[in-house]
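Here's my example:
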Amino acid sequence: MFNNQGITMFEYIFYRANLAYKKHEPNTNHGLSASIAITVLQFCMVSCVVLVFRGFFDFYLLPKNIVLGKIITLGFLALWVFYNYKLYTPKIKEMEKKFAKCPANKWLKDWLFFLLLILTFLSFIFGPFIVSNLLR
């Protein structure tokens, strides 16, 4: 579906999030909201990879001081949102033309799109807890 049209996954997710925010929340900055949605998904993906490697190797990416680690993580996430905003927002008009006739637009409704975002985030939060309890 995505390879035939030269579509990247995150461009399409940004397009759909931007479209949904434009439709349901007309008074917000759509590009920023869509950038935050993309960043949350990317952060979940990267964190899962780091957790897998953390299970195999004993290493720490952040300092053991919890407060300092949270400050570094929040700063990194803010930079990541800014990067995604600057990367995808100038391409909005181009994406609207590119994805207007995408077949996924017909079967992936806005409510289902946001449900998938929420389920992805919840699986990131509760997944390690459930897996660790199952392995006991």
Observations:
- The mean pLDDT is 78.
- The longest helix spans residues 30-56.
- The chain has six helices and no strands.
